[in-house]
UniProtKB/TrEMBL annotation, chains A, B:
It is an enzyme of class 2 (transferase). This is Aspartokinase. Belongs to the aspartokinase family. Its EC number is 2.7.2.4. One of its GO terms (cellular component) is cytosol. It comes from Savagea serpentis. ATP binds at residues 5-8, 219-220. InterPro entries: AceGlu_kinase-like_sf, ACT-like_dom_sf, ACT_Aspartokinase, ACT_dom, AKIII_YclM_N, Asp/Glu/Uridylate_kinase, Asp_kin_monofn, Asp_kinase. The lineage of its organism: Bacteria, Bacillati, Bacillota, Bacilli, Bacillales. GO terms for biological process: diaminopimelate biosynthetic process; homoserine biosynthetic process; lysine biosynthetic process via diaminopimelate; threonine biosynthetic process. Keywords: Amino-acid biosynthesis, ATP-binding, Diaminopimelate biosynthesis, Kinase, Lysine biosynthesis, Nucleotide-binding, Transferase. The keyword Amino-acid biosynthesis applies. GO terms for molecular function: aspartate kinase activity; ATP binding.
């Protein structure tokens, strides 16, 4: 039994939804179908989720919502008409959306969650109705009925394992289950959306809970590429990679999956396949626990991401001060700042972090506290760093790889600000100036893939 | 005004002490002379300090001390006779040592400190007497009179800055000051020895307190070499290096100076010169705050040291757990284990530490606590690691250096276990298997010096 998830562009229009239905019906194993809200039909289109946010904001500001509401419903109506579905479904959707708009706005976060979730929820109802209109045994299952339980506010939303038992029952149902992505319910029935990973998480959770043989994630690309196609010309497709490789690539700019989305599938070792709704015959990219036969390339992918900074601290005889590193990390932790790497010399330590965590205020406080509490000789913060990550399970056993990589970076004319190798067996991280990112990525790609 | 310190082999015999006196008298700036205890005269000889430890142990065990005591005094007597010094000095030394042997053994650590310090203390008295016998204005100054104040037990012995004012007065004395290295006195007059860095610290403290123009450290080599002469054939001499370079090299096996020994001179920017008592004409190695003209080599030295281990911890989504790294370091800190480097991947973190800090007990506790408190997917400890450090102020600005280094390591057939670059501007650290250390060092030396 397979769980298939279809992203926003895969369910953006009647044409796309027909492809989805064809894909699902072409393989009897495809039983649970997780759907996103209708996405963009062209690059200048607006996603339904964004229409819903606009509608929610008008409602919160006590502005007239008639037109904004109509804009949302029009998207579903157009799809339903083109698919020849009984117009009753539009009445259902209209009532649902109007009910949400009228609901309590006391807690603005929960109101917004409920409004945004309407995109996926109603698309699942509509797609289930389309299956039925074709005479296929299929039904919409809401996350409340299905048992997708999430934790209470204000903690960041995460699925609760207590829901798994009920979710597992979905595999024993007859016919196809159409399940909306992106949200779940707390034990007392409050709707909360996943703020990271969206519908991908829903699919991954269902695949794990039902012990699916495969989690198929349909999107609009044939596969994951070995490097960013916006930077490198026609990069190679990755046919197969491990979870670990995917994780390391996702960290530095490979946006196919959010970190957390893969977690449930990973924990149960359910293989994942990334496929293209518009070209379902293409093999796609398989993500597995372990490769059946080793790859002939030591590096499977190269990712780069900007937005990093270095906090540099220097103190004579630092390495004799037990607890120095711990205290430094504690100051960052007190400010809620995660760190990525901590390269260290004898008398100095750098903490590489993402600039998104920095504000002028917490930056100032961190520097001041380091000065006061650690009494360093120097402390300063440098920004405009990018991280380039080479990923591959075979790297550890390949002699000379670091040398080839460092050589390729040097040839591009960039200077290496940081090298981090030694913990992960599957990645090698270089810190470079953001200004050098593009040429470094090209040079590394040429070295390892050409 | 210069402070000169002479190491054990430089003051091991009458012949050597004559060289010391010649050196001191050949430059009027050489005013404060710090001396060690008589060291080995040949490779199978016993240092006076070791004779004193033997004597102290016999005294602590209530064994007969007559012969052990005579062995110590015989060394001084032989020197005094050969130097034709008034035999009264031997009486002074005999009384001093007998007094120490008779002193309270209630606190064994303090008794041992006092016994060991007799080596330097009496050698200073003897050398001062020799200067006087030559008609030179010179006198022995005890650390108590001079003002070399140290902290109280049980904290690790360190000099107190309160002593500096009195020490500074030494520069205004007439004639030559002969000062014993290796120990100081607490405010209430208890003798304590420096357990790390020995007499080098005394010289460095005096040079700093007296604002010396130079701290000359006389030993038995012409200079510091760019690599270990036991491994690399005839390595290049280093003419000049910075404090930072010295620190980084000292960290990984360059045993010319202990870390802490340079600290006082460093804080006051007193330049240090390492010279050879047996070849005082050789220019030696200068250690300075900043080079006057940049070196034409990016790397000034390559050091290697074994005895490292890696604690590896792996947990899916680790980098989203704020405080994970801090907690890991805290567990080590609770066990009193310092760490050297912490390379990290996306979902993993390694802590490189010195195996000398590990015991079967604390190793077991660390692993258990990591498992319980951090709930990792995996944790394990790997030993038999060596660190190889390339050091040079010019490294940061040299493109392709990491690539050349990694290439040289690969060519030696070794695999790189860890690379740490990015915090220190003057060093690049590679982790390798200890079994590969010799060939890696040779290969790196050939790459950067041949």
């Amino acid at each position: 039994m397979k769980v298939c998830k279809f992203g926003g562009t895969s369910v953006a229009s009647a044409t796309q939804i027909k492809k989805v239905v064809d894909i699902v019906l072409s393989d009897k194993e495809r039983k649970i179908v997780v759907v996103s809200a209708p996405g963009k039909r062209s690059s200048d289109d607006t996603k339904v989720t964004d229409l819903l946010i606009e509608l929610a904001n008008r409602a919160l500001n006590n502005e007239d919502t008639t037109e904004a509401c109509a804009n949302v419903i029009a998207r579903y109506e157009e799809i339903a008409q083109e698919l020849n579905i009984d117009p009753k479904i539009i009445e259902t959707i209209r009532q649902d959306i109007e009910q949400r708009v009228q609901s309590s706005k006391e807690d603005e976060v929960l109101f917004m969650d409920s409004m945004k979730a309407a995109g996926e929820d109603n698309n699942a109802k509509l797609i289930a109705a389309y299956f039925q209109s074709l005479g296929v045994e299929a039904r919409y299952v809401s996350p409340k009925e299905g048992g997708l339980l999430v934790n209470e506010r204000p903690a960041r939303v995460q699925a609760l394992p207590e829901g798994d038992e009920q979710l597992a029952k979905l595999k024993d149902e007859k016919g196809i289950i159409v399940f909306p992505g992106f949200f779940g319910f707390t034990k007392n029935g409050t709707l909360r959306t996943f703020n990271r990973g969206g519908s991908d998480i829903t699919g991954s959770l269902l695949a794990a809970a039902t012990d699916a043989t495969l989690y198929e994630n349909f999107t609009d690309v044939d596969s994951v590429f070995a490097a960013n196609p916006m930077v490198v010309d026609e990069p190679e497709a990755i046919k197969e990679m491990t979870y670990r490789e995917m994780r390391e690539l996702a960290y530095a700019g490979f946006s196919v999956f959010h970190d957390e989305a893969l977690m449930p599938a990973f924990r149960k070792s359910v293989p994942v396949c990334i496929k293209n709704t518009n070209n379902p015959e293409a093999p796609g990219t398989m993500i597995v626990s372990e490769r059946k036969k080793p790859s002939n390339r030591p590096v499977v992918g190269i990712a780069a991401d900007d937005g990093f900074a270095t906090l540099y601290v220097d103190k004579y005889l630092m390495n004799q001060e037990l607890g120095f590193g711990r205290k430094l990390l504690e100051i960052l932790e007190d400010e809620g700042i995660s760190f990525e790497h901590t390269p260290s010399g004898i008398d100095n330590m750098s903490v590489i972090l993402r600039t998104e965590y920095l504000t002028p205020e917490n930056e100032k406080r961190v520097i001041e506290r380091v000065q006061e509490e650690l009494q360093p000789d120097h402390v300063h913060l440098e920004k405009d760093l990018s991280m380039v990550v080479l990923v591959g399970e075979g790297m550890r056993h390949t002699l000379g790889l670091a040398s080839r990589a460092a050589g390729a970076i040097s040839r591009s004319g960039a200077s290496i600000q940081m090298i981090n190798q030694g913990s992960s067996e599957v990645s090698l991280v270089f810190g470079i100036l953001t200004a050098d990112e593009t040429r470094v990525l090209k040079s590394l790609y040429d070295e390892f893939f050409k």
